[in-house]
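User: two proteins, same treatment. go.

Assistant:
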Amino acid sequence: MEKKFVKIQTQIPGPKSEEMLERRKKYVPKGISNNCHSFVKKAHGSLVEDVDGNILIDFAGAIGTLNVGHTHPRVVRALQEQASQFIHTGFNVMMYESYINLAERLCQLAPGDFNKQAAFFNSGAEAVENAVKIARKYTKRQGIISFTRGFHGRTLMTMTMTSKVKPYKFGFGPFAPEVYKAPYPYVYRRPEGLSEQQYNEMIIDQFETFLLAEVAPETIAAVVMEPVQGEGGFIVPDKVFVQRVREICTQYGILFVADEIQTGFARTGKYFAIEHFGVEPDLITISKSMGAGVPISGVIGRAEIMDAADVGEIGGTYSGSPLGCRAALTVLDIIESENLNERAQKIGTIATEKMKELAERFDSIGDVRGLGAMCAMEIVKDRQSKTPDKEAVGKIVKAAGERGLMLLSAGLYGNVIRLLMPLTITDEQLEEGLQILEESFEAVYLNNSAVPVGR
């Protein structure tokens, strides 16, 4: 297929990016990872141009931050207008209407037929931290349950809640106390001989036993669950599991917190992924695509829970900044006017069909899964052993990058390729990106040097 959007002028990274990489190595610590070794010059929609003039299709979306795409014109206008009026007063110093407008809209959109309130912060980790604070304040309990393979951030509390040791936790202890990890379903890696139904029943039994063997439910303030695990490998739980956890939370007075940092704002075909499971959370954490690239996060929840914290006990200098609030309000307008929930479902269908086609050609694709436009494939050495193949994923991501497609990996074993393209991507750009994905598989598995590296 002739490339209409991707343009490869130099090797990637090109000479200008190579020069900047040397400066980056000198002045920026290696602990901050970089998936792509090029430097961006400009980006619009789903296309990114680097400083060497190479144009790439973005299937990474700044790790799920750009559901409405790069520099959406309406977001740009809103930010320019806001910056010309005032940039910052600190909501805890002098308030502004956009904060109230955003809180009102999100409370109306969030699932649950009850009064809600919302508070805003800066990052996803901050949102989760504050959800924990609010839950502990309201319940007067200390315990927090998260799940195996879950990711919630890099601060002390959220790093403790996160399941993957390397690179997120190794050498950074001691960790926060009273945090417990419960089992989370992973149907693809279920024990041999168990049907999906039997396996899901087993995981529910394990969760119930967990509250007997590991920690007393009366001491737990909140259960924090990603409706679809992001960093964990885009693992979608069974609806019955999520509903049973909710029932157990209600039974014991435990708050159910849906971590929607990566799953929210139309990524899965609904404003909040938890809506797919017929569950009403007590608290919802949000960030990433909420601000279209402007830092902002939040917690939405039952009014009586959110109001448990006293004056000055939550918030921060930049929390819910004017620029972030204006960006988030515009994102909500775009999702509605451009029907991005429906668009996410269509993108997911197209991408999943393509990945299933690839699975028919390549035995290394062990599983294709996802929800809406949050879809992925798990790469293994072979389908019989299901041995994770992290090395192959690295080669595929590299081959894709050389051909003009930005990809991300994920998963506890680092062997999952995840797709997080902007929901505003055109059908033609989506098709071209998926074609490059196929070419990258051919280059790695068929050792086909003739597979083009851009045209």
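Protein 2:
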Amino acid sequence: MAILGSIIKTAIDLRGAIVSKKSPVASQQEVLRNLLEKAKDTAFGKYYGFSKILESEDISKTFAANVPYFDYNEMESNWWCKTQEGLKDISWPGSPKYFARSSGTTGKSSKKIPVTDEMIEAIRTTGIKQVGALTNFELPSDFYEKEIMMLGSSTDLEEQDQFLEGEISGISASNIPFWFRGYYKPGDEIAQMEDWDQKVETIAKNARNWDIGALSGIPSWMELMMKQVIEYHDAKNIHEIWPNLQVYTSGGVAFQPYEKSFNQLLAHPITVIDTYLASEGFLAFQNRPDTTSMKLVTDNGIYFEFVPFEPEYINEDGSLAQDAPALSLAEVETDVDYVLIISTVSGAWRYLIGDTIAFTNVEKAEIKITGRTKFFLNVVGSQLSVNKMEVALREMEEQFDIKIPEFTLAAVKIDGEFYHHWYLGTETKINTEEIADALDKALKEANKNYAVARSKALEGVKVTTINPKLFHEWNAKNKKMGGQVKMEKVMNEEKFAEWEEFVKTQKA
């Protein structure tokens, strides 16, 4: 047994033993009160009467009744733009040092989300909690001596006026605690590289010099990196290069769609731990081995609300209707899709982050991400969420013995009739009519609204299969490679026409 690893593991165990056992519901009430207290003298706090809300007998209900929902555009145009102009005390006391750029999966321009010192500390604290939770996964002591490969965007942040800008993964990596830097790879010099291809090529060249025990990053980009490392060293799998690799912490998107193709790059199974780090904060992480769900971080600078994910509450652009009801953590139920709303120490208030979640265990505040509000396909009443789409595609993988790590689709008109046109990323040749019929059948069985739509306005399903690399090339064309980048799963007709032209050009 490695002595140093044993010491680190014991220290983590002892720290975990003294962590507060306050219930998630009680923690959330305390977080909301602290947020309102700290921000009551800001321009936002004065405008919405935070001081009065704090006097209420039911702070959470009064808060919900007096502060509207905000999506990014509303928060930016009404409040954060003033912060970017250099004004202080707008939606949070003082002025943030950082802005997190998030191109996301919709929209043409990058979002710029403030990241305060309090948020940096909250992310760091949650990161330490996640490390502490590793002791629940029965990893050997020598694991704690190994290095961790964190694949994210560049840590070489851009100066914009008095702020530093970059993706949240780059901002977080640039604030890694000093005691962790000895374990962190690929190291500061490589992490600062802007060019994705250059970064991955340099990682591949240096790979054998590192003793990697854990990987961390978005699944699609992690796969590309591992493939290049394997190819560069003419290896059969990644364990020939990093024999002590035991853990992968996935983030940003669900790991399940990538599981089959990811595992083919390994010599043996490794522990996969899901995390939920967004540009707006570190929201949740998996803290025990007997579930794939993630525990919401209920005691660390983020207050959560949950809106039932129903068509009547979602506007055409993916924003929320202001009369949509919001539930607190004390009111939610398991296995119901909710739109996630957050208020944070970065001055986001009742903010629509764009994700939908479902609780798997309310008492433990454990969730799974089920989709995106803008990836809700309801053009002809089909009411398809990303979760339903991905469940159906996992069935297709099993039924046809193929891998489908990437997909996108749109509702399009063909000869005057509506069809769902799917593009599936797979390297296997397959009869597209057969898989279209099977996919259609699976969705009918999984979703009664889809079945009704198929009997009326939705004429059918069309499937086109393409090489998964085209999805990455599309992101590269749109200057979205690496970091927190995710492929859009549902496109409108205009974007889908661009996509089809791109695919046609690449095939030619």
